[in-house]
Design a protein that fits this description.
This protein is mainly α. The protein is elongated, with a radius of gyration of 19 Å. It starts with a helix and ends in a 9-residue tail after the last helix.
Length: 222
Amino acid sequence: MSDHTVKAFDEDITRLRGLIAEMGGLSEVAIQGAMDALVKGDQELAQKVVDGDKKIDELETEVDKLAVRVIALRAPMADDLREVIAALKIAGVVERIGDYSKNIAKRVGQIDGRQHFEPLTLLPAMGELAGEMVHDVLTAYSARDPDLAREVIATDDKVDAFYNSIFRNLVSYMVENPATISSAAQLLFVARNLERIGDHATNVAEMVHYAATGVYPPDDEG
């Protein structure tokens, strides 16, 4: 490629990275906002999370258009092509993380007896861990750090353990307190959404590892 083309390609890649960083930042805020709204019963904050998801969707569309344009106009090869494809895939996964946060926010108004609902206290720590995975994997992407990506993958086991513990706790609570079944079921959905956020952060980590090294991490790390 000519110097001009190389410079233009580098600018496009920088733009792609910037868009994904912006998406990631918004998704982190969405996770935290959704969990805060859930714990406090804050419908206004929950609606803010729901409304904010539109911006994440718009950014994903922008990433898609830019990635397609880069491939069509620059015809990148090898490492450069891998970089563009990784950005395209990662944007799609981060958009899904935003969707899960929106789903959590939509359940805020469906929890009864919030002040005395013990299972509600179990979820914030799981939400914090899932949020940390998203933060760390986006840091790994920005720094092209495969080692940090592998740490994120390893952390997913902790999120899964949280989910299994919360699932058992909520089922027991529903059996002992049948009147709480509806609210407890909503919290099961919340826990499931957080577990899926962890899974999606793991997917991004695998793509980051591949983009940085050309190989996917070993299966026994996921």
